């Protein structure tokens, strides 16, 4: 699922890949659990809890891409109920899950920023609270999944569902900043080794709440890139968005 989410957009843009992704989306639905959860790999068995959202959110995000690149509403109509079950499951976890002090944000993750640096970690100090790469990857894709669901619902003329998912996406975006921003160092998290992995997703979803914070985060990313001679210190999740982020 994670590989599909990383690669599908360029495939959909450059090639006629609609039927291939229709089949993939069908496979995801076929393996969906009763509670709405989907497995991180399909075919596979869905669990009864929150899997890695940076992988499972391929379900709503790729479905939304089918419409974005091909104008495909048929897949949206056919899969909407299954997509809603998936996203509502995560909303429930964001509301009542273990991260209760940050209600409104689901942070489930297994794989972090996949294959980032040595030992699959960008962190200078893996496991430190200053380097919450895994939680941020989950939260980042939780926001993107909600935004995809809002778009899908709007395309289908379901204004109630569109408003609901838009509301949860806005709440999650605000909570993302509250949860991950480290004011003392002007960036998300605090571990120098994971500056790119932790700050670029925040820029992608527009999490900085004001211009001053935005400018500071952009500066820290730019300084990091300059300091390491523009070496990419990211894994698969963040590498997809890196080149779309403006860093002076």
Concise summary:
The chain is mostly helical and 248 residues long. Helices cover 59% and strands 2% of the residues. The protein has one domain (2-242): Glycosyltransferase (Alpha/alpha barrel).
Give a verbal description of the structure.
By secondary structure, the protein is mainly α. It has one domain (2-242): Glycosyltransferase, CATH 1.50.10.10. Helix content is 59%, strand content 2%. It contains 10 helices and 2 strands. The protein has a two-stranded antiparallel sheet. The longest helix is centred in the middle third of the chain and has 23 residues, at 74-96. The chain is globular, with a radius of gyration of 17 Å. The chain starts with a helix and ends in a 6-residue tail after the last helix. 46% of the residues are buried. The mean pLDDT is 88.
Keywords:
single chain; mainly alpha; Glycosyltransferase; 59% helix
Secondary structure category: mainly alpha
Mean pLDDT comes to: 88
How many β strands by DSSP? Answer: 2
Within the largest sheet, what's the order of strands?
1-2
Terminal residue distance: 33 Å
- What Rg, in angstroms, do the CA atoms define? 17 Å
Based on CA inertia axes, which overall geometry fits? globular
- CATH architectural designation: Alpha/alpha barrel
CATH topology grouping: Glycosyltransferase
Series of secondary-structure elements, N-terminal to C-terminal: HHHHHHHEEHHH
**Largest sheet data:** 2 strands, antiparallel
What portion of the residues fall into strands of 2 or more residues? under 5%
Number of helices: 10
Count of the domains: 1
Q: What are the segments in which pLDDT stays under 50 over at least 5 consecutive residues?
A: none
Indicate the percent of residues in helices. 55-70%
CATH class group: Mainly Alpha
């Amino acid at each position: 699922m994670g590989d599909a989410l990383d690669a599908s957009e360029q495939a959909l843009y450059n090639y006629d890949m609609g039927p291939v992704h229709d089949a993939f989306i069908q496979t995801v639905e076929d393996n969906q659990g009763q509670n709405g959860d989907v497995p991180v790999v399909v075919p596979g068995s869905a669990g009864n809890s929150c899997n890695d959202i940076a992988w499972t959110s391929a379900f709503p995000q790729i479905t939304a891409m089918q419409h974005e690149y091909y104008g495909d509403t048929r897949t949206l109509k056919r899969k909407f109920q299954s997509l809603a079950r998936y996203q509502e499951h995560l909303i429930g976890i964001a509301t009542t899950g273990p991260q209760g002090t940050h209600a409104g944000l689901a942070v489930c993750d297994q794989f972090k920023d996949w294959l980032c640096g040595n030992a699959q970690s960008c962190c200078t100090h893996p496991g430190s609270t200053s380097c919450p790469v895994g939680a941020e990857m989950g939260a980042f894709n939780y926001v993107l999944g909600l935004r995809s669901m809002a778009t899908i619902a709007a395309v289908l003329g379901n204004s109630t569902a569109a408003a609901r998912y838009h509301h949860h996406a806005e709440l999650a975006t605000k909570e993302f900043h509250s949860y991950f921003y480290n004011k003392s160092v002007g960036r998300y998290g605090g571990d120098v080794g994971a500056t790119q992995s932790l700050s670029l997703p925040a820029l992608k979803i527009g999490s900085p709440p004001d211009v001053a914070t935005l400018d500071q985060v952009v500066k820290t990313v730019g300084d990091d890139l300059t300091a390491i001679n523009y070496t990419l210190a990211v894994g698969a999740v963040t590498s997809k968005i890196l080149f779309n982020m403006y860093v002076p």
